[in-house]
User: What shape does this take?
Amino acid sequence: MESKTAVDLEKDLISHLAAANMTKEQLSELSKSIAASVGSGFKIVDWWILGIPAFEQVIIQAHVPIAETNTLNKLILNERFKGIDILRKGIPKPDFFQVKLTIQNIRSQMPQV
Amino acid sequence: MRTETPAETLPQGRVSKIIQVHPSLKCNLFCKHCYSSSAPQYKEGLSVKSILRILEEGAGMGYNVVSLSGGEPFLYRPLEELVQASKALGYFNSITTNGMLLRSASAQRVFRHVNLVAISIDGREQQHDEMRSMPGAYQKMMEGVDIVKAHVPNFGFIHTVQPDSWQLFPWLAGLAVDKGAALLHLHPLELAGRASTSFGNMIFGEEALLKTYITHYYLKTYYEPQLFIQLDLLHRDHIRDNPAFCFHADALSACDLGDFSCLFRELIIDEHGDLLPIAHGCSKRFRIGNIEEDLPLVEMFNRFAQQRLGELMQVYQQTYDEILNNTEHEIFNWAELVLKNTFRYEQELACAG
Assistant: This one.
């Protein structure tokens, strides 16, 4: 996991959520994606919020137990996630999927300057 | 950031079924955001014998956590007797406190029987002291944190969330981790009691709710499992997809109607000794009974099942439908909405009757 201090996290959040002047629709889009990720039984292990100051793209990395293939089906069918990378992980025996989700449509909703 | 083994905050492997007790509204502070209007002038507390009777019967029905609040629990004289007996009954004891009255020998005896202490924090020093209407409250609370750390296996912080609090969350989480806390509980301000006077015009706009929700998940990712962060707000999609969580009618089949601790995972004993479902402050129409009532708890539950359970199910259904049909908002405080709807239901009955 990327190592971030509380001060780093505070800076990230302030720059993305306060300074970027995101619209309600953009915030809503991101919240729905989070709800969908959590609702799918994900254990989210990392986020990358890309774009300064506002979101252009959010990448969520998460773990799904190997038995939960239904969760993967749900994710693949969910139009909210534009990119899905799935890797089988676990040593010595694979026991979880590492899933990387990309939410990109935030960019298209950015206000034109 | 440290990545140590997570501390145990709740009984492992057990579903928490909580009896929340408000033994008195007596408090050393007069906080602006207090939903129960607790204050120094209150004197009388509930009979410890009567509370223990309910706890004893509750333990036999599956309840396994006692959560003490108030008022300030450390001003309740028989607190030691209460937590000692509760512990002996097998309960996981949790206390919510302002952390300012923990130096005494009696407080430290109480700690022997307590599993988790949650200390209220409103922000950085100035903000905390202003909210508590007492200069020096923050410093004293921090001294209390050190005392708790030395005596109780687990402790955490509880923060009353206001519309702009999300900006404070990273600082709160960082402080909690630095202090070795296992829990950060984020509870949205309820416009009840004194809070309705102090913050009557305060509105959680949708934008503030969305930022609160996003920030909470962002921090969870970086701090869990070392620090468990709980926000008492839900996304509409989550409510829609998990009706069982919200006690939607369809979920009843999964629950044994005879098992009240399954139906009401949280049972409240308020400062009047009334037993309530949902949360502190719900309409007394839905009162299950009173601790002084000469009736076993199971019979109070059976009476409630016959007289009020159907009505309460309607309130739950109404709240669920309201949330799903709401096109303006997507983040909700489920318990607060149900609570409001208990009063609305009562008013509608009065109008109809």
Chain A has one domain: 6-108.
